[in-house]
Amino acid sequence: MKTSRLNFxxxxxxxxxxxxxxxxxxxxxxxxxxNATIVVATxxxxxxxxxxxxxxxxxxxxxxxxxxxxxDGCWAWNTGGGVPRSMFARMGTDKISFRHNNDxxxxxxxxxxxxxxxxxxxxxxIMQQEQDLGxxxxxLGxxxxxxxxxxxxxxxxxxxxxxxxAKVEADAKRLATQGGTQSDLGDLQSELGDLQSRIGxxxxxxxDMQSKVGDQQxxxxxxxxxxxxxxxxxxxxxxxxxxxxxxxxxxxLDDAVRNGTAHKH
Length: 265
Hints:
Blueprint: H1 2-30, E1 38-42, E2 49-53, E3 58-62, E4 65-69, E5 74-78, E6 88-91, E7 96-100, E8 103-107, H2 110-119, H3 121-152, H4 162-178, H5 182-258, E9 262-264
Antiparallel strand pairs: 1-4, 1-6, 2-3, 4-5, 6-7, 7-8, 8-9
């Protein structure tokens, strides 16, 4: 019984360590944007487009649009309407600074700040997935470039045929000086044909090797295409979430102004 208890304790310890490792990885994944300042803006009334400038990016989004920045890149979408206009909100971990009816406000209520930031957590996850896909695409691109170089540098072992060429050259010179019968010419043509056939075989080998590299290129191309489709699907999903989240954030900020949670800055 003593051995059994020791085994159980050891198994329990292993299980706890494994759970801690998995939990640590999950927290690490979830915390990528946990402390990031989230900037959300929409096209301003009376302006031709949305002008945005943050530490990492700047630009103009024509028409009605949404801009979201998590501190390490820009995500901007043109939308077909239904998005609150004239919004600019900067959400830190401890406060939200925003404009409302041309006045500047700040929210420091922890629960309200958390609710606002949690709205955009799913978009943060999608952004991370898009970055991961981008890294995979870059890695595939590097492999494709390497294969392209391999394809251009394909070489086959060429046997020494110099003596065969020398014999053909000598026979041709002899016929040129002495003349040749139909049989002599046939022999010369046969020698030339044999050399051409051997060279053709070598070309075929090189072609087969290039074809194999080309097949690998095709496989990588298919993988790139699938990653591109995933990127497109993620972008569409993020756009839909962004439109919903901006509307919810707008309502949350309106409520905060009405109930006094937001204070003029």
